[in-house]
Amino acid sequence: MTTTSSTAPPALTARRRRTVLAVCALSMFLVGLDTTIVNVGLPEIGRGLHVDTRALEWVVDAYTVVLAGLLIVSGALADRFGRRRVFQCGLIVFGVASVACAMAPSLGLLVAARAVQGMGASMLSPVALAIVVNAMPDPRERARAIGVWASVFGLSMAAGPVTGGALIAAFGWRSVFWVNAPVIVATLVLVALFVPESHGQRARRLDLPGQLLLTSTLCVSVGVLIEGPRIGWASPLAMAGYAVILAATAGFTWVELHRPEPLMDLRLFRRPLFTAAVLGAVAVFVALNVSLLLTTLYLQQARGWTPLAAGAATLPMALGATLCAPWSGTMVGRLGPRRPLLLAGGFTAAGGLCMVNLGDGTSVPLLLLAYLLIGIGFGFANAPITNTAVNGLPPSRAGVAGAITSTARQVGSAVGVALAGGLVAGAGPAGLAQASHPGWLLVTACGLFLLLVARTSRAATPPAR
Q1: Of 188, 219, 246, which residue constitutes the final position of a domain?
Q2: Where are the bilayer-spanning segments (predicted)?
């Protein structure tokens, strides 16, 4: 996200404001969808490109790591050069990269194209929200629009495997990337016709050293998690990775604390409420992505299901997220974040517990129940975490807090995929269910951690009724 302070918004009709929201929500749907749509296609991609599970993790994480690393700087660029302009650039980059993914003849080119796709996505998610906020000066209308925004994001993440399974069954794995092209073209036309230009009231300076160090830390951390099972956790290469992570983290901390306009305001982490919310965002997306990747590999490799059947099995997860995301937003507005966070943690932990003894013959109803519980937990989580992150901060800091929380979500996605892939790397179809048990315990632990975040949120000031 970017800062919400901006130039005076143009007077838009109610119909045009709704159109702006729809266009921006569509871009958010694409960003979230491409975070998870590839999961269900990984076995097919592996067979098509003749690569193993460990290498396939990069297809997912190249996108999420770059997206996480560039979210904040993209918001700063939009404030400086114009939000609509940067948004249009993001759409073009995202669309061209999607076509490159669809045509990639090898894993290396596919991973590179996915990284470029993440670069384009980083110019869509935070910038589109700033456009919506700028177009809706009325606080109540803006609050409803942000609620719609959160619901669309939750739906897109949960709907990815279902959509991917259907596309792969009908047209093959490359279709999950081709489908973006017509949507991007339509969105570009709608942006040109309906979305007004806006700038930040005061353009922030770019923090290039901080950006470089943050991206390095994320990339090397995820790389070590993915490659660790292959190279050995105590190997010289892994040790070198640990040293780079420590040095980059220390350098990033020093740079950010000494810059007048840092990329990430680390002083916010002095607030326990904010820190708990950021860690909660990581936990939610670790749980979701561990669940999605383990489900994909288990159903297709251990039980021999088709991509369509595996995607359809996650329908309860998508249903739970879709129904509970708007309900959670309403609860936060009326009761504060604690109750929906308790529900999020409880349902997520229950879903993980259903799967801790997963076997080759686990009943389908139990699988569907577990996916439903995890989907409900995910649906309840997003709104209260965002609320907890920004609660108690002055409006001028809310945009920064939201940007850090958005980054934390993508970090959680990347870490979840890396951890899940590492757990089952090298496990054959017969041993995959057993190898996944620690992953489901991790999902349970993430749910229990959300209960702690809910307890922390007690200190939040109750929202005005």
Answers
A1: 246
A2: 20-42, 62-78, 90-113, 119-136, 148-171, 177-196, 208-226, 232-255, 276-299, 305-328, 340-358, 364-390, 411-433, 439-457
Output phi, psi for 174, to 5 deg. Answer: -65, -20
- Both 328 and 455 in one domain: the answer is yes
Which of 193, 223, 246 delimits the end of a domain? 246
Q: Tell me the Cα Rg of the chain.
A: 21
Are residues 71 and 410 in contact, defined by beta-carbon separation less than 8 angstroms?
yes
- For 212-278, give the secondary structure using H, E and C: HHHHHHHHHHHHHHHHHHHHCCCCHHHHHHHHHHHHHHHHHHHHHHHCCCCCCCHHHHHCHHHHHHH
Position 165, amino acid: G
Encoding tokens for residue 11? Answer: 């007077």
Rounded Cα distance, 12 and 286, in Å = 39
Half-sphere exposure of 455 (CA within 13 A, CB side): 5
Give strand pairing partners of 200: 6
Inside any domain, residue 42? yes
Q: Do the beta carbons of residue 159 and residue 35 sit within 8 Å?
A: no
Q: Taking the CB of residue 165, how many other CB atoms lie within 10 A of it? A: 29
Domain that holds residue 216: 208-246
pTM of the model: 0.83
**pLDDT tens for residues 52-97?**
766 788 888 888 888 888 888 887 787 778 888 888 999 999 999 9
Check which CATH number belongs to the domain holding 198 and give it. Answer: 1.20.1250.20
Q: Are residues 392 and 329 in the same domain?
A: yes
Q: Classify residue 427: in a domain, yes or no.
A: yes
* Residue of higher predicted confidence among 389 and 150: 389
The answer to whether the CB of 176 falls within 8 A of the CB of 168 is yes
- Name the residue with tokens 């109540």: 140
Position 99 in a domain: yes
Total domains in the chain come to 2
Please check whether residues 158 and 219 belong to one and the same domain. Answer: no
Rounded to an integer, what distance in angstroms lies between the CA atom of residue 273 and that of residue 35? 27
Amino acid (1-letter code) at residue 5: S
